[in-house]
């Protein structure tokens, strides 16, 4: 009896799954622009975005010179696209630099000064072509302007997946204004830390910021001052999804798939972190961000959260809940505060948010169930 019931449940589950596929196959693919910075997880994210062409149309890629040297980051991206048959996705290198560069130690690993992203770039699986074959996809226009060009050319607003600093996005918003901003349906950004600790350790900084935000705090400020719809995937969520040896082993049984082999190899470069720095291993930061776009049900989102960003001083790059500003400052006496004793607004808000942007509403991914995320990535990359 029990077996029959389980079979029935399995049948219904399989039916729902296939209906899900049919529904998505009939819908238009989601149009996405990918703005990344060449980190290990940025490349796994690229694989994930490419793995479902029926669901995702990648319009173009812009790359910042942040977590990896730009030439390498661009070449590796071009090689992955070419190898997997995506010969019509343009790739542009940004010329922008942030106020707080990533440590050279990351861009150039201490091991014989080989950058992390070089360990991806050398993989034989993505080196079957002649170098000149990559050229047609390389865009001459600087990435920050190409991003605007791409947006302005869209008939309808599109989704932006941003897994590095916000410099390119900020450039578009400040230089191209509403014409470009109105073409952004939503930005999903891996960045920020709200209730979680930051991951920046740098002289003169108080450690409250996440690195993508800290790299270019002014850019974060520009995005916060805009009204473009923003979904944050902050450290609060990504802390749940470390890259572990167990996860990488699970690609083994599906190693007849190039996507899986590549993702497994790329993530294998950072599995030692869970032993070497258990307090802060390598996380699937960016890959979770893309997963929240492709499979929204995975990610617990709070739609309206009032936050602000700090653009200068010891906390620069900090993203914070507006509620915390009141508590931190402790200066919201009724005569200074907002009407109705809400403790915020008017003179009070101007006083407590010094060094920060005015508060604005964002959506926040607070939580994800790690196993559901891992299972989704494995399933998606089994192609
Ligand atoms: O803060 C997370 C962001 C993600 O976009 N990056 C790495 C991911 O691609 C910066 C980062 C934080 N800590 C790092 C980082 C580390 N220890 N090594 C390299 N990059
Ligand atoms: Ca990144």
From TrEMBL:
One Gene Ontology biological process: purine nucleoside catabolic process
Domain of life: Eukaryota
UniProt keyword annotations, A-Z: Glycosidase, Hydrolase, Signal
Signal sequence region: 1-27
Gene Ontology molecular function: any one: purine nucleosidase activity
One Pfam family hit: IU_nuc_hydro
One term under GO cellular component: cytosol
Region (Disordered): 316-346
Domain Inosine/uridine-preferring nucleoside hydrolase: 32-374
Keyword Hydrolase: yes
Family: Belongs to the IUNH family.
Protein name, UniProt field: Inosine/uridine-preferring nucleoside hydrolase domain-containing protein
Organism taxonomic ancestry: Eukaryota, Viridiplantae, Chlorophyta, core chlorophytes, Chlorophyceae
């Amino acid at each position: 009896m029990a077996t029959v019931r389980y079979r029935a449940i399995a049948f219904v589950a399989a039916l729902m799954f296939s209906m899900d596929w049919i529904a998505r196959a009939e819908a238009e693919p989601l149009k996405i622009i990918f703005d990344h910075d060449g980190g290990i997880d940025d490349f796994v994210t690229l694989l994930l975005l490419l793995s479902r062409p029926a669901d995702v149309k990648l319009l173009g890629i812009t790359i910042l010179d942040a977590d990896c040297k730009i030439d390498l980051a661009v070449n590796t991206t071009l090689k992955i696209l070419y190898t997997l048959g995506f010969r019509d996705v343009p790739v542009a290198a940004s010329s922008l630099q942030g106020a707080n560069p990533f440590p050279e130690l990351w861009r150039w690993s201490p091991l014989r000064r080989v950058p992390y992203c070089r360990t991806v770039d050398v993989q034989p699986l993505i080196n079957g072509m002649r170098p000149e074959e990559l050229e047609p996809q390389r865009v001459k226009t600087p990435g920050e302007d190409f991003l605007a060009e791409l947006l302005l050319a869209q008939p309808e607003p599109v989704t932006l997946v941003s897994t590095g600093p916000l410099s390119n996005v900020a450039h578009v918003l400040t230089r191209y204004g509403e014409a470009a901003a109105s073409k952004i349906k939503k930005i999903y950004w891996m960045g920020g830390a709200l209730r979680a600790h930051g991951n920046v350790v740098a002289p003169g900084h108080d450690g409250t910021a996440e690195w993508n935000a800290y790299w270019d705090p002014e850019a974060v400020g520009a995005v916060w001052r805009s009204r473009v719809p923003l979904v944050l995937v902050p450290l609060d969520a990504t802390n749940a999804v470390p890259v572990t040896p167990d996860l990488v082993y699970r690609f083994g049984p599906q190693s007849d798939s190039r996507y899986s082999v590549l993702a497994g190899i790329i993530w294998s470069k950072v599995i030692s972190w869970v032993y070497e720095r258990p307090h802060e291993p390598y996380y699937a930061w960016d890959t979770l961000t893309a997963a929240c776009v492709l499979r929204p049900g995975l990610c617990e989102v709070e739609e309206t959260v009032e936050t602000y960003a700090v653009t200068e001083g010891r906390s620069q790059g900090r993203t914070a809940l507006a509620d915390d500003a009141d508590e931190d400052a402790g200066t919201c006496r009724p005569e200074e505060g907002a009407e109705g004793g809400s403790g915020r607004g008017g003179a009070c808000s101007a006083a407590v948010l010094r060094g920060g942007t005015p508060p604005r509403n964002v959506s926040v991914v607070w939580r994800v169930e790690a196993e559901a995320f891992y299972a989704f990535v494995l399933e998606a990359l089994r192609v």
